[in-house]
Amino acid sequence: MNSFRAVFRALEYEAQRQRKAMEEGVRLVQETRGGEEEGKTVSQRSKEYAHDYRYFPEPDLPPLYVSRKWVEDVKAELPELPEACRDRFISKYELSVYDA
After folding, report:
1. Separation of alpha carbons 41 and 36, rounded Å
2. Segment holding 7, helix H or strand E
3. Phi-psi region at 14: left, alpha or beta (left = phi > 0; alpha = psi -120 to 50)
């Protein structure tokens, strides 16, 4: 697709096509679709499984395991959020919302 307008038309077409298929009880298949000039999309090739898309893990990145303790420690070190700071200024110093 060579323009935003073509992408928009294809998205509109796909939304209508998929809605109609659901209403009619037609099962949608996992596939790669291409766009035509007038916004219509056409099937290019079917895909049965995720490996058909050639997804694979990044071999140079080890798995990342995050413990609950680490998450809690990071949360404890975060600065005060703007909304909380505003509310604290309003209640502690009796400032208006604008001034806070």
Report:
1. 6
2. helix 4-23
3. alpha
The owner of tokens 């996992």 is 30
Per-residue CA distances from 88 to 42, 67, 78 (Å): 57, 31, 16
Query: Could you tell me where the beta strands, DSSP code E, fall in the chain?
Result: 31-35, 41-46
pTM of the model: 0.47
Tell me, what's the pLDDT at 34? 87
Looking at residue 43, the DSSP 8-state letter turns out to be: E
- Helix, strand, coil percent content, the chain, rounded in steps of 5: 45, 10, 45
In whole angstroms, give the CA distance from residue 30 to residue 10: 17
> So what's the pLDDT on residue 76?
94
Residues contacting 99, CB < 8 A, separation 6+: 89
Cα gap 14→9, rounded to integer Å: 9
